[in-house]
Design goal:
alpha+beta, two-stranded parallel sheet, two-stranded antiparallel sheet, 4 strands, 28% strand
Length: 85
């Protein structure tokens, strides 16, 4: 998949849990490949992998509120880092 993307990069690519079976070491390699390709392709990644999420610019998630209704959560990583500092 990454080899094809390197040769002929699409404008965007949707990846659904493609990193689910990876251990920590391979997750880092996967993240490095994503970083290499992000200049030419926009990624929409569905994941639970912590390493992959650290490479994201924006995280979107769904959470349940106290009333039981689902709510969309959006976090821009750059803004969150500024708040932490």
């Amino acid at each position: 998949m990454f080899a094809i993307t390197l040769v002929n990069p699409p404008p965007f690519l949707i990846l659904d849990e493609t990193d689910a079976a990876l251990d920590e070491s391979n997750s880092e390699k996967y993240g490095a490949l994503l970083a290499k390709l992000q200049g030419r392709t926009q990624f929409i990644i569905i994941t639970h992998n912590r390493e992959t999420m650290t490479r994201a610019g924006v995280l979107y998630g769904v959470t349940a509120g106290s009333d039981g209704a689902s709510r969309v959560l959006s976090v821009k990583i750059g803004e969150a880092e500024e708040l932490v500092e």
